């Protein structure tokens, strides 16, 4: 029996949940035919068959969790015993930690690690390029040893005793845990806030679309805030298109669909896409393609409550814009006190790439765009 194992679906999680089988034992399947819908961190992903044949066995029922690399479906035929899920990645550079810092040592023989070892390292938070190894192949023991050394120098968590039922995190919340951990480990954030005067808005306005246009104006004024940054290689990439990841809060958790190339979309097209994203987020039917490719983030948390925040950046992006709750406020206007409608704005940038001046200019451009009638 040929075994098709669950591939890495590109969401950064080591597992996915079966939502719906499109085939059953006895069915004939063709290469690239969709066989199952899997729920990953925040999307439903249709998985195609890698080969043709008659389905012999399904390794799981709807609702079951399948780990990446574990059997998903069996098709009649001979199993290739030499097949390995994933590839052995190599690196010629090894970092060794000593009392005075980190030194780089070049090995003539390339270091190797199997997919299982790399998955273990990912789960334990170990960077394979920063550990000492016992040979030319990185082993599970090398990874565990690195974890033990790290824990010896890290405050241990409290031993919490739960008195009520304990629930496992959903894929959506697990994705949030991993994204926030990655941000905490790799981003150097700086936040700045101010109030935009929106009192002169004429007629009924689509607030979300106005916010998107303001973010667009900010990125056009300060292009480096619409970029990806790779600190390891010390390079950054400016994006021509402005793709805004829009945070959507639901009972299932936070979803971040991406509005692609907003400068080329009309206001009506943006509103139609926003409405679709909101409905798909509630239904958990967002396709994977709509969850990728964000170049800057927008969080309109003020629709619920709150004025200012320090929004969290998800790498490799370098900026996020947070919008607080609009309110009436007495301010100085044309040299006299006046009650004006103001909108709080908070932005966070990755200060490794974006300077303080660039962050302030981004904020200023957004405020100017929002101040227009």
Q: Which series of helices and strands comes N to C?
A: EEEEEEEEEEHHHEHEEEEEEHEEEEH
Low-confidence stretches: 80-110
> β content, as a range?
25-35%
What is the CATH class name of the largest domain?
Answer: Alpha Beta
CATH superfamily of the largest domain: Chloramphenicol acetyltransferase-like domain
The major β-sheet equals: 7 strands, mixed
- What is the architecture of the largest domain at the second tier of CATH? 2-Layer Sandwich
**Total discrete domains:** 3
Could you give the distance between the termini? 67 Å
Give a short synopsis of this structure.
The protein is α+β, with helices and mostly antiparallel strands and 373 residues long.
Structure characterization notes:
With 373 residues, the protein is an alpha+beta fold. It is 23% helix and 32% strand. It has 3 domains: 74 residues, OB fold (Dihydrolipoamide Acetyltransferase, E2P), CATH 2.40.50; 60 residues, no CATH class; 184 residues, Chloramphenicol acetyltransferase-like domain (Chloramphenicol Acetyltransferase, 2-Layer Sandwich). Strands 11, 14, 17, 18, 19, 20 and 21 form a 7-stranded mixed sheet that branches. Strands 1-8-6-3 form a 4-stranded antiparallel sheet, with no helix packed on it. A 4-stranded antiparallel sheet has the order 5-4-2-7, with no helix packed on it. Helix 4 crosses helix 6. The chain has 6 helices and 21 strands. 25% of the residues are buried. Strand 15 and strand 16 form a beta hairpin. About 8% of the residues have low confidence.
